[in-house]
């Protein structure tokens, strides 16, 4: 039996050959009803369009890259990918993941090779800035660069980010307003080769404390522990080792706050009776443990970034190339008015 071709599919679906091609490669240009007819005919005829042929004709690969400074299993990256995929996949694009772009070596290798391979139509960069060399290399590839939660939009054609510094500033102000005076910010050390958005949260904490210290007789400090698999245990040890246990704790992220709540109970410290604690992200399990936190929505940011990418790939102007969203304070049960003892 001869293999079916695009002409057979067009005839079976009652549409033109160009409509069949668009149904596979540019589905946003075809009505849902027409696309369903084409896909049904293609399925019955066991036909698959050649993406490589379409790419050669249109000068596109129908592939985008997502660069992450951590692995895909992290809450933020998984949600970001889901958002990008929900927009790019219906538009006919595949997503190539590049995980753990977190050392000078891995970054140099990626940004040096991309212009030579030129095998993507756009690049998403999640949660870290790119330096002038990397900007130059991406520019040689002549593809749009879209930042997601990056500390600055320099070098990006478009971006969408949460204001990490302002979010932690508000979180700290909230604890101060509850009467807390001995406040500790717990965080992981900055990676020297990265300019990660999460590091801005510490600046928000310091700014809030400095602004309130003269009027409130505030005692505050930053506890920094090394990044890596053992950073939660290191943070716990640093807190327990303090001469005086704090009455409030700001955590760099929920994935630090949640285990600290559980482990501090072993040492007789219960929230909110003995201390208040606040996280950042409103990630998985934050609601389950009743954690007060700052909410961000990486899935929505991924969707917004993907829509910007499609416009840039198509040469359409952007109404707003760079967006900054504000985190929302989510009040739950791990904060309370401070009762001096």
TrEMBL record:
The keyword Cell membrane does not apply. Pfam families: LacI, Peripla_BP_3. CDD domains: HTH_LacI (cd01392), PBP1_LacI_sugar_binding-like (cd06267). GO terms for molecular function: DNA-binding transcription factor activity; transcription cis-regulatory region binding. Keywords: DNA-binding, Transcription, Transcription regulation. Gene3D superfamilies: 3.40.50.2300, lambda repressor-like DNA-binding domains. PROSITE patterns: HTH_LACI_2 (PS50932). SUPFAM superfamilies: lambda repressor-like DNA-binding domains, Periplasmic binding protein-like I. Residues 6-58 form the HTH lacI-type domain. This is Regulatory protein LacI.
